[in-house]
Amino acid sequence: MTSFQMSAKEDMVEKFLDAAARGDLTQVSSLLSLVPSLINQTGYSGWTALMLAARNGHLHVAEKLVSLGCDKSSVNSSSQTALDIAKFWGHRHIAGLLSQSEGSCRRILPGGDLSLQENYFGRETLDRLSGRRTDEVWLETKQKDLATVYLLFSNLSPMVSTPQEDSEGGDIKLCRFRYEAVKDLLQKPSTVLIFLGMEKMKSSSSSSSQTEEPPVWFAISTDEDAAELLRRCRENTCLFPKTPNRDLLKLSEEEAGVVAQARSVLAWHSRYSFCSTCGSSTHLEEAGYKRSCLNPECRSQRGVHNTCYPRVDPVVIMLVIHPDGNQCLLGRKKVFPAGMFSCLAGFVEPGEAIEEAVRREVEEESGVKVGPVQYVSCQPWPMPSNLMIGCLAVAVTTDIKVDEKEIEEARWFPRQQVIDSLFRGASPAFFVPPRQTIAHQLIKHWVGMNSNL
Amino acid sequence: MTSFQMSAKEDMVEKFLDAAARGDLTQVSSLLSLVPSLINQTGYSGWTALMLAARNGHLHVAEKLVSLGCDKSSVNSSSQTALDIAKFWGHRHIAGLLSQSEGSCRRILPGGDLSLQENYFGRETLDRLSGRRTDEVWLETKQKDLATVYLLFSNLSPMVSTPQEDSEGGDIKLCRFRYEAVKDLLQKPSTVLIFLGMEKMKSSSSSSSQTEEPPVWFAISTDEDAAELLRRCRENTCLFPKTPNRDLLKLSEEEAGVVAQARSVLAWHSRYSFCSTCGSSTHLEEAGYKRSCLNPECRSQRGVHNTCYPRVDPVVIMLVIHPDGNQCLLGRKKVFPAGMFSCLAGFVEPGEAIEEAVRREVEEESGVKVGPVQYVSCQPWPMPSNLMIGCLAVAVTTDIKVDEKEIEEARWFPRQQVIDSLFRGASPAFFVPPRQTIAHQLIKHWVGMNSNL
Q1: Which residue would you say has higher pLDDT here, B213 or B109?
Q2: What digits encode the pLDDT tens for the residues B415-436?
Q3: Can you give the residue ranges of the Nudix hydrolase domain (chains A, B) (predicted)?
């Protein structure tokens, strides 16, 4: 090829990729009919047209590319497939398309791939880079890096700003600080500093050079006066939410995932600053992921002990289905808003399997006996550090007898009533928890399972 | 009917049920051809012939009864179906038969019912009766009950006896004590007493009256000299196993489940006797399931805090499958016996979903990137209190780069090599962990998935 031809080809590839990234189906189609070999061409960092369409949520372009037989398995320079990208950016319709056509995965996992289901608090936008937690030199350099992002926590609440006209995504946004704005706090002995990780992937439209490392994130917890901390922001739309159970559900999916990690680890530090084995003080290690006893005689110094590592509490949460398949069991606690019913739930006990915990909790709380149990999906719930393990369960008895210490009322609800509540707006007499909860997602999963919703 | 006819019918029902319980297929068949209505007759406590066959593992009798259309859904006076009974007693072939024919369950859970998979340490023979943990009067009465069973622990090891000629099941058996034999230990302030629960179901052949409550079980942990404790047994075949990771795998399935619960809770008491929030001493409450801080000013006294409850650490353990579907990734740690390879595994971190933990751990340990993840089954692992969450995962990259801090070697193993190792006996060059581990069961699940093994 002459240099003119090369340049013309490069131009065309660029035009084609740009059209895919913008979702311009007409241009994508006409360029492909002109030059079919464009379909698998790559641009910056090895991104294909399919990846760009997947990144930006352009389903029709993705469908067109797949229907024309594009290579779905190729990976970019970060080893991500288009499916990875669609999942990462939360474009489930595209992820569904790409995994449907992933015949090999279906063959390998005959039970079906549920791992596409992603719940609020579950998205990982940061690579935790746990190997770096003991690399003090690297961490110190990163702390001072101009691109590094700091989140500020007070009483386990992150500083957030309330919505602006042009804001995208969630109703509230995390306040992000640079090193200069927080370096005084880092000097204070009472400050807890947690390394959260490195951004997994930059936006495909990034203009920065390929060699630059993505920014890393830290969380800072400080006992400084909250009003003082808020003065660090120029806008007066900032605050520390007071009711995490409700307010932290207003973040974007991306930020919710970061908060889940940061808040759980910080809650552990706030509750576990003394050695549970001997009562001595402990000190923070490994960038916030370990606390070691300061007493050299302590048993916890010999070998590896879970006392030194963050605690995660597994909880089972289950939608119990009536033997007739057309009703589900929901209960309500006294503290729920009037009219709200949810799935039953409870902590997994020591020495107990998930399925057994489901059977025990359902019988304890409602008197209903459960047979088959099926895992559906899970959700990290940072209040303070639960792992909600979501299951469907089929009842083998139907009489309800509630344990009034646990729940106020439990009832079988017909499928149609649940569907109405989910899709036609909640009635004050009966509604379920919001979409950010795994309870909501389990209920939605069930009503969608045997119908065409 | 005359009284003679009634008695003749009762005799025949009894004969029929007895034949089913003994597994006498010839007699079951001939009685049924004589009096077909016998098929759903019930005897003691509402047990049917199918339940008795399921209880005692008589597959051929169960098949005959099912093929003749017996009622599979009827329940005994403890609300158990024949399927419940088969699962409870570990007769998986019968449980498989009964759940295969349970069309309704399959319809309700279209993904298939994996909850039949039961792993070692996962069987629950005791009803934990958590509501009784705060009932001190009831607990005290039960402590002195002649039928109550006590297990003795020293340094987190249960006292066991080594095999006798006529022993059934495991290679070692728990030593069971009555109140009289341990009442001196119960008086000691250093003794930790845990309520384990009530036996779920008595053997169907029991001759005791229906009104009698089944025995309850307690675990005692004491700091008395182990040699002294062993003198409480008449036989000199008793001991406290020294290597729990290995020795506790020699119990029967029933006893392993009890030990999983007892050891996890006792390990928590041994490591968490001080308040992690303020460093003060704590005291045991709720029959061993809570520890409260003795300092009235402590924050942990206000509201509910996880610091007061036993810790359970969720761990992901996964078999990673090659994109070609015919190889799996296994790794080995330096401490493994030479030639042993196993699934990769790691703790779930705060704010992390199960599927994300699988992807992170596999990439950290082996450098392999993982796409779809599927939950298979789980296993309580009381060393000291892990919940092993077993998954299959499909790799999207295949290059291996091990993290040498974590594992020594990782390799793709062809399916046939794994099958040979599982079913034709281990070779010293390559073998997998024993059947009691969930790693073994995941591997077996995979090799059986796409073949007729």
Answers
A1: B213
A2: 999 998 988 776 888 999 999 9
A3: 310-436
CA of A303 vs chain B CAs: smallest distance (Å): 13
Tokens of B240: 């406290």
Of chain B, the percentage scoring pLDDT greater than 90 comes to 62
Q: B3-108 with B313-447: one CATH topology?
A: no
Q: pLDDT confidence of B412, banded at 50, 70, 90?
A: very high
User: Which residues in A lie closer than 8 A to residue B271 (C-beta atoms)?
Assistant: 276-277, 299-300, 305-307
- A85-102 pLDDT, tens digit per residue, is 888 777 877 888 887 644
B116, B279, B314: residue with CB nearest A312: B314
pLDDT of A216 higher than 70: yes
DSSP structure string for A14-25: HHHHHHHHHT-H
Instruction: Name which of B80, B81, B115 to mutate to probe chain A: the one with the most chain A Cβ atoms within 10 A of its Cβ.
Output: B115
pLDDT in tens, B436-453: 999 999 999 888 775 433
Q: Do B329 and B414 contact (CB within 8 A), yes or no?
A: no
The pLDDT of residue B110: 60
**Mean pLDDT across chain A, nearest whole number?**
88
What's the CATH code, domain B3-108?
1.25.40.20
pLDDT higher than threshold 60 for residue B164: yes
C-alpha–C-alpha distance, residues A35 and B184, integer Å:
89
Residue pLDDT, tens place only, B227-278:
999 998 877 789 999 998 889 999 999 999 999 999 999 999 999 999 999 9
Q: Which residue in chain B has the smallest CA separation from A106?
A: B372
A393 contacts A370 by C-beta, under 8 angstroms? yes
Chain B hits for A441, Cβ within 8 Å: none
What are the C-alpha distances in Å from A393 to residues A116, A440, B100?
21, 15, 17
**pLDDT tops 50 at residue A203:** no
pLDDT, average across residues A19-39: 89
Question: What's the maximum distance between 2 C-alpha atoms anywhere in chain B?
Answer: 82
- Asked if A277 and B273 come within 8 Å (Cβ–Cβ), the reply is yes
CB contact under 8 A, B351 and A260: yes
Calculate mean pLDDT across residues A97-125.
68
Contacts of A149 (CB under 8 A, 6+ apart): A176, A177, A178, A215, A216, A217, A218
Distance from CA of B23 to the nearest CA of A (A): 26
Pick the CATH number of B313-447 from 3.40.50.80, 3.30.365.10, 3.20.20.150, 3.90.79.10: 3.90.79.10
How far is the alpha carbon of A271 from chain B, nearest alpha carbon, in Å?
5
CB contact (8 A) between residue B115 and residue A261: no
- Using DSSP's 3-state secondary structure scheme, residue B28 falls into helix
Q: Measured between alpha carbons, how far is A340 from A427 in angstroms, rounded to an integer?
A: 10
Kindly indicate whether the domain formed by B126-271 is annotated with CATH number 2.60.40: no
Q: Extract the tokens encoding B381.
A: 């692992």
Which among A119, A264, A389 is the nearest to B350, CB-wise? Answer: A264
Which residue reads 């993840």 in tokens? B373
- Asked if A274's CB is within 8 angstroms of B274's CB, the reply is yes
How far apart CA A387 and CA B426 sit, in angstroms, is: 37
Which of chain B's residues have a Cβ under 8 Å away from the Cβ of A378? 353-355
Q: Shortest Cα distance from B1 to chain A (angstroms)?
A: 34
Burial of residue A404 (number of CB atoms within 10 Å: 0-12, 13-18, 19+): exposed
Q: For an interface test with B, which of A99, A102, A268, A349 has the most B Cβ atoms less than 10 Å from its Cβ?
A: A349
Gyration radius of chain B over CA positions: 25
How many residue pairs from chains A and B have C-beta atoms closer than 8 A?
Answer: 276
Q: B204 falls in which pLDDT band (50, 70, 90)? A: very low
> What are the structural domain ranges in chain B?
3-108, 126-271, 313-447
* Res. A170: pLDDT tops 70: no
CB A342 within 8 A of CB A439: yes
